[in-house]
Amino acid sequence: MSDIFDDKNEVKPQSINWGKVGDHVFGTKAGQRGNVQTVHGPNTLYSIKVEGGTFHKKPEDGGVEVVLKSGEMWDLWGRNDIFDAQLDRMQIGQKFGLKFIEEKPSRQGNPSKIIKVYTTGEIDQEYLDSLAGTGEV
Fold first, then answer.
1. Most CB atoms within 10 A, among 40, 55, 59, 111?
2. pLDDT tens across 25-34, in order?
3. Closest CA to 91 of 136, 127, 123
4. What is the pTM of this model?
């Protein structure tokens, strides 16, 4: 058996960054955790089972484009009360999309990233069926 503790086997967080206008993701809401403690205070972490999309890493991480592959699980952080309310209203298993539309100046110094939320209301029944008996829904 190979060495499980080899650095190449380290599991890295998969969190979507909004590095460039036009970045987007679409898929199924797979979960959410509220009151996650961060250096900026409590936040919400949402999980998405990806169908597709792309985003760009932060410039300090190279700014490279990341292509999201169907079936991957990714996390994304809550943004503000309006964004969180939009995602909170969606059910686990509901399909949705997010798109980075524009940046606007903010009083905090860093520009505000405007992320729009889209959904047709469609439910991913296959995903819900996969949760049967797990207590997740």
1. 55
2. 999 999 999 8
3. 123
4. 0.85
